[in-house]
Design goal:
- The chain is an alpha/beta fold.
- The chain has 2 domains: about 130 residues, Oxidized Rhodanese, domain 1 (3-Layer(aba) Sandwich), CATH 3.40.250; about 120 residues, Oxidized Rhodanese, domain 1, CATH 3.40.250.
- It is built from 10 helices and 14 strands.
- A 5-stranded parallel beta sheet has the order 1-6-5-2-4, with helices on both faces. A 5-stranded parallel beta sheet has the order 8-14-13-9-10.
- Strand 9, helix 7 and strand 10 form a beta-alpha-beta unit.
- Helix 4 packs across helix 9.
- The longest helix is centred in the last third of the chain and has 12 residues.
- The termini are far apart.
- The model has no long low-confidence stretch (mean pLDDT about 95).
């Protein structure tokens, strides 16, 4: 079976020793970049590899392209090969933050045309609650044959967003916490506020008790944002293009595929002081 959005802890447990499955630990902390690797070393899902959000799953920073620039497709493909993946491998990503970081790997895999990628619903906590196998071993695999194919997701750049400010057919959706969207708090980036015209859909609204809401519930919540638009007319962004993937995945679960990502997101947007900034709880 091809899992393309979510797997449960029970489903993963049935395949944890399957050599066609690859499990990847994406635990991370935006304020302590070494925390995820320390947690991985202390214990992880049996057979899981570790993915570093700051380096392996991000490209070089220039000071103008945001905090987590997209890596090249070849960089990600090479990482997949190092994990022993082929194009037929099932990839499962997890973290301990409700999918906040694991969604980056899900999106990147889809960008490489790989449909066999899913999040562990409920993450590390669900795995422990289900009594799943854990260890401290760093797995090794024979180099895989993975090759990138036609992307299954799309992204836009800052110029595209700038050109579509005020366009009623395009909607920017900001996944950050409401207080960051409003510019009331900004703990990470040098400028507070949001892209003018963007609406706020906090990524945590996709979850109940740490797991994704049902497809029907998510669809009921995203359809009012669409307001007659096509899913591809929605552009998701956050602080750096990572957590916004949570809303892309939630729409996929809801049966509304095709929404695009503004990969540079807020941290790229404010790197250019000529770009406009809005504040307050309204677009």
């Amino acid at each position: 079976m091809n899992h393309s959005t979510l797997v449960t802890a029970e489903e993963l447990a049935a395949h944890v020793t399957n050599r066609d499955w690859r499990i990847v630990d994406c635990r991370h902390d935006l304020f302590d970049h070494a925390l995820g690797r320390r947690e991985y070393a202390a214990g992880h899902i049996a057979g899981a590899f570790f993915a570093d959000i700051e380096h392996g799953l991000s490209g070089p920073k220039t000071g103008k392209n945001g905090r987590h620039p997209l890596p090249s497709r070849e960089q990600v493909a090479e990482l997949f090969r190092a994990w022993g993946m082929s194009n037929g491998s099932q990839l499962v990503a997890y973290d301990a933050q409700g999918g906040q970081f694991a969604v980056r790997l899900w999106w990147l895999a889809r960008w490489l045309g790989h449909s066999r990628v899913a999040l562990l619903d409920g993450g590390w906590q669900a795995w422990l609650a289900a009594g799943g196998l854990t260890d401290r071993e760093i797995p090794t695999r024979t180099r895989g044959s993975f090759e990138a194919e036609t992307p299954l997701v799309a992204y836009v750049d800052a110029a595209y967003v700038s050109d579509h400010l005020g366009d009623p057919h395009t909607l920017v959706v900001d996944a950050r916490a409401p207080e960051r969207y409003a510019g009331e708090q900004e703990p990470i980036d040098p400028v507070a506020g949001h892209i003018p015209g963007a609406v706020n859909r906090f990524w945590q609204a996709n979850l109940v008790d740490g797991k994704f809401k049902s497809p029907a519930a998510l669809r009921a919540e995203f359809e009012p944002l669409l307001a007659g638009r096509r899913p591809e007319d929605l552009i998701h962004q956050c602080g750096s293009g990572v957590t916004s993937c949570h809303n892309v995945l939630a729409m996929e679960i809801a049966g509304l595929p095709g929404a695009r990502l503004y990969a540079g997101s807020w941290s790229e947007w404010v790197a250019d002081p000529t770009r406009p900034v809005a504040r307050g709880r309204k677009p």
